[in-house]
Amino acid sequence: MYDIFLVSSSEINNEIWLSFKEKFPNAQKLENVKTFEEVKTRAFTKMFWVVWDHLNVIDFEFDYRVPKWDEEYVHVFKNGEYYDGVCIFPKNARILQREWDYRFFTKKKEIDIHASVPQQYDIVFISYKESFAEVNYLKLYSKITKNKLFRVDGVQGIHQAHIEAAKKTSTDMFYVVDADAQIVNTFDFDYQIPYYEFNTKNTVHVWQSLNPINGLVYGYGGVKLLPRQLTIDMDLSKPDMTTSISNLFKPIQRISNITAFNTDPFNTWKSAFRECCKLASRVIDRQDDTETQQRLDTWCSVGNEYATGGAKAGRDYGLANRTDLEALKKINDFKWLEDQFNGR
Fold first, then answer.
1. CA 20 to 30 Å from 216, out of 40, 42, 153, 222?
2. Tell me, what's the pLDDT at 293?
């Protein structure tokens, strides 16, 4: 039997360790590991298992035996959809630091056996005193089975609310669900990014949402998957929160939810105002001008008086202040928006 190591680059959650130790009594715990050498010096067998602490090991017995003619290779087992999970290492292997950090080994064999499934990314529900927030939160709570769900409520400022959301989570990426989002039945929070795709893990992912007033389908109000640390360190000077986190952006062409912002006059007006201000001022990085103008025209012409009124007011404000970032940042202040609505 090969040695088995539960390995982490930081400290291992004691609950995870005790559960793993109960299943595999001979396993050893290695914390704050930075290099391959730190692991191999603890091994007594010529091949040994490495299980990273973020992996969820399924019904797997660790009884795989490497054929003698393959003992020079790192054997990588399937983790969900990708080969980035449990590994068997030769003790005499030479693993470069970059290979260890990215878990992408040059001299490897991919074993088509599921040893683990990836840890699901945390979810944060963000609300700001909306009357409908509690109902939507409970609906989301009833749908979640594998992810941890957190809530941020009443934090002033869009950027600040998302920073607070990131601090609540423990996974390197996390989902954000807005208070007005009604998740469609076909959407599951199970998106997987391979461990070795570091650029992808620094990318803001945005799913599509259906606008119930004007029928538009694009990223406005959609579920977002954000890199945790970059969100904590986001640029607070930009009016658009999503594009202030990273210069890498990936739209997912799949509907995640209906953005049911049309619950009362203020929320309808506020949502239309904010979106159309951003569209008109062109503060959203990498916008397609033709597509943006078409969306703006639809917002301003289709819907009830609060939707089109907020859209037109936001458009006019965005055009008038497109070079004034301080003025544009006010659209993230809900108290300021409420004052604009009441005084219109």
1. 153
2. 94
Q: What single-letter DSSP state applies at residue 200? A: G
Prediction pTM value: 0.90
Q: Could you list the beta-strand ranges (E) of 118-168.
A: 122-127, 149-153
217 SS3 class? strand
The burial class, CB within 10 Å (0-12 / 13-18 / 19+), for 252 is middle
Task: Report the length, in residues, of the chain.
Answer: 344
> Which residue(s) pair with 94 in the sheet?
none
Percent of the chain with pLDDT over 90: 88
Residue 49 near residue 8, CB atoms below 8 Å: no
Question: Domain-by-domain residue ranges, the chain?
Answer: 3-117, 120-262, 264-344
- Rounded Cα distance between 303 and 294, Å, is 15
| CB-count burial class (<10 Å; 0-12, 13-18, 19+) for 133 | buried
Q: Name which CATH class applies to 120-262.
A: alpha beta
SS3 (DSSP) at 89: strand
| Spatial CA neighbour of 47 closest among 97, 2, 102, 95 | 2
Residue 309 has pLDDT above 80, yes or no: yes
Between the CA of residue 239 and those of 124, 204, 325, what are the distances in Å? Answer: 21, 16, 7
The sheet carrying 74-79 orders its strands as 28-30, 3-7, 47-52, 87-90, 74-79, 108-117, 56-57
Instruction: Read off the tokens for 177.
Output: 């669900």
Is the pLDDT at 284 greater than 80? The verdict is no
d(CA 337, CA 132): 19
According to DSSP, residue 82 is labeled B
